[in-house]
Amino acid sequence: MLTKTLAPLAFRGLFWTIRTAQIRSIQSGNLLCRGFKPGRGTGDSGQTALFNNERRWKDDAAFEALGATDELSSFLGICSSCAKSDGLSDVEETLVRLQCCLQDLASHCATPPTSTQRKRELTKFDTASVEWVNAEIDRFGDELPPLRQFILSGGGPTSAHLQYARAVCRRVERKLVPLIRDEAIDSQALKFINRASDLLFVLGRYACMKTGNEESTYLKPTSFTQLKWTKKKLS
């Protein structure tokens, strides 16, 4: 069970919420019955709408943040599939929950301060997400040995994918900064995404340990002909 109820994500161009009752009432031949939403082409001119129906150019700071958040969530789907293949059900569950938190973050970013109070309340950022991320960092991090050297991304497919996700998460953080400066989003949203990158780093190390792989530590490449990479098992 998820720890919170997700706010509906109904803004055009990003997510589409369909109630069960509506689905039952759709007649055969309707576009929705064929697996995609109506209203295609509304963004062909280079502009699209936020949750309050305000249209902006697609390179607006809000859409930059939304695009990066969507990319991270999509990549976490790959990470989740890798974790499932490795039998890491705990990591898989955490990643799915993180994806849900990212959708909440996206809905918050897509609701400008000029929106109605009802819409702002609907997509208000839940600070409980920050508390949950911190708890997950402690839960997985407590099982890991101390980190005394820089490590290189790797340690098996799942670990490597998670470390890449961490880098994408850092990009999301950078995309949120302009919105923070403009006071367009809650400052806790930036705190959440910063901690999320820490969580992904910890999960990468955890996956490396649980799959029996080794971490490669950084070595100053002063002589490429005599490098001896240091690896160690996390067990």
UniProtKB/TrEMBL annotation:
It comes from the Eukaryota. Keywords: ATP-binding, Nucleotide-binding, Transferase. Residues 42-207 form the Cobalamin adenosyltransferase-like domain. Pfam families: Cob_adeno_trans. It catalyses: cob(I)alamin-[corrinoid adenosyltransferase] + ATP = apo-[corrinoid adenosyltransferase] + adenosylcob(III)alamin + triphosphate. One of its GO terms (biological process) is cobalamin metabolic process. GO terms for molecular function: ATP binding; corrinoid adenosyltransferase activity. Homotrimer. Belongs to the Cob(I)alamin adenosyltransferase family. Converts cob(I)alamin to adenosylcobalamin (adenosylcob(III)alamin), a coenzyme for methylmalonyl-CoA mutase, therefore participates in the final step of the vitamin B12 conversion. Generates adenosylcobalamin (AdoCbl) and directly delivers the cofactor to MUT in a transfer that is stimulated by ATP-binding to MMAB and gated by MMAA. This is Corrinoid adenosyltransferase MMAB.
